[in-house]
Specification:
By secondary structure, the chain is mainly beta. Among the domains are: 187 residues, Chitobiase, domain 2 (2-Layer Sandwich); 85 residues, Tick-borne Encephalitis virus Glycoprotein, domain 1; 243 residues, no CATH class. The longest helix is centred in the first third of the chain and has 15 residues.
Amino acid sequence: MQIRKIASTAVGALLAGATFAVPALGATLDGLPAPFVSGSAANFVVVVGAGAATADVIGAVDIAARFGGETVSTGSAEKKQGQKDAYLGKAITSQFPTRQTSNDIGILTSKATISIGSDTYDTHDEIVLASTSPTLNTSLNSNQKDYGTETVLEVQQGAIGYYYLFDTKVNITKSVTSTTPLVISFLGQQMTITASADATTITARAGTKLSLKAGESATVENKLVKLVQTSDTSALVDVGGTQDTVGNGNTKTINGLQVKVDSVFNDQGTVNDFAVIIVGTNAEKSYTHGDGFISPCSSANGDSACTKDTADWTWVLNGLASNTKGDTSAGGGPTIGIQNRFTKASSSKSPIKLGQAYFLPYDFAKVEMTSAKYTDYMKLDVFPDTLDLNTTAIGNPRTLGTAEKAIVMTSDVDDTIALEDQSGAAGNAWFQSDLTADTTSKKLAFVYSNLNDTIDVWYYDKNGKPNYAGNLSVNNTGTAAVNNFAHIEYKDTRGTGGVQLGLNASNTSLTSGDLWLVLQDQDSNVGGATHDDIWISLGFTGTRGLTGLTASTQGLDRLGVTKSSAEDRDVLYGANVGGSAQQIGKRDVDQMTSYGIKVEKPSSTTASDHATLSIPAGPQQIRVTIGAKDAASATGTRTGQIKTSVSKLDTEVATPASEKNLVLVGGPCANRLVAQLADAGKYAWKCDDLGKLPAGAGYSIEMVNDAFATGQVALVVSGVSAADTRAAAARVQTFDTDGLKGASVRTGVLATA
């Protein structure tokens, strides 16, 4: 069920409330609706006198309606949205806790007190993630070539859940009946449970609670729901052009939607009519663990074939007959929740990509891939070439010609290929290395030397001249491994713990095996040299391997076995060149590793004996957002959610009135709390003072800091007469356009006091 508010919430604030938060001292009218609405909660009590005039009550309704529909900027949006940067190839719980609470996401509730009959219970809600899913994956780490260079968020069944949990022991099966129902806010909707036949079954209905003044509308399930007018006992409601009268406390189906009238207020005419109605598509129904949820299908990115019988979201119901606290597992206490049934773990299932999200029912919350950390890339190209290593070469160890066959590696960014000084070092049991250069370049060349069965390594200096760096040779007694001789130095991709370059031979001699150039992911957060590597086959003239080379002119001159031909094993992905490696040399779309290295369309590049790779400025991370669907929430704005009663008569407020912020409507003659402020010297007029003035003499709108307790704020809306008070309330209702400023606004005779 989706809802889009068109008009401000009306009397919702008089029927609901939230936890008190101590505001900053010195609150003024400029900051309205703060501190009465802050973050995701409304922090106030509206108080009118027990004998207040109707005009005072209407004024209070107007203020509550405005405050109840407001949003206020907060300073902790990132925390409240649950935003984390997660590495590719990892479950997002590598960064997020598996259980998301109100400390992580602002739309969740840390504590709500509800009633079943005469008993009260403390509750809260959570969003729960599986430890191994959702997972950020790429075409290569998931072996789904059609992902291309997109990062996707794969989801297994049951990976995302929402739970309403009891913090107080309760036996729901025993306690809940049609006369003592359980009414809770579930996924932001009012849900009524009227029975629980056993430990895994409930009878429930859900709907969207609307507080509307006459003429106001909201959209529910793509239908416009409008309050036309009220009487003392009913409301006239229009649903998509169809009107019907619904009695107070009764339910009717109007144009396909169930409409229940929860309460009505009737005044002469229709200007001040209002009603609280609950609108939904579902009648009361029995549900068992595993059944499709009341609103079974996601608004987007669920299963395209979703129906009520093959639901995206299914009930999780367990332990309802046990007298224990709530839990999120089948073996624990009372469990009331939902989890995803859909699976998004292959390209055919279309998992979400950057900028997309999975949505919980009613669009209550989202799990979104928001942005990529790195957008800058350097390009690395590997290809055969013929080089002059005689005329311009520096440090030539032997007589080389002017047309030597070589494999060349080039970067489009200066000084990004960093050679590592390994002079005399074995490197590992497979390769010997005597590289003496410790320098950076944008171009390397690899030349086979038949003199000592080695690969000579050359780097090009800033003048474009080749410099001999040393050679790599096979240790015939070793076993296959990678000899790292260089690494990438590009912004945050740097050092030997980033992307290293190495050579690998598949036998004990270069003259009897394959030769591979390896880009090895050494970042411990991603691959850690265990699986996330790219292997490029370096080919030669003659038969497979380097067997039979007798002259330098017969050196490396291609990628793979056959020159100018795309072959599966031209490029591999994985931990080694064995059977577990993915053969990607003929893939016809770009591919991407967990590090974020992009391999340009292999089938095209290898056909011309090239391998082209784009390396990101650091190990790629995706910002994942878990929170409200509304994008405004991500910028620090929250809608005031009002869930428990805050409307009181002055005789109902405890002494001292220090629990919450207060909106006091009516003067000291009508509202005893205003009289108490006057007696304490915090409000300028006592009842005797105003009683001497004629009606219409003026009003005052006062912000009283530290009203009845330190940090508590009271907004006094008071007039000489009831009509004056209503006029003052009208100004508070339009505070954003009325220009209210400072600690107080006074009119008429009161302005001169």
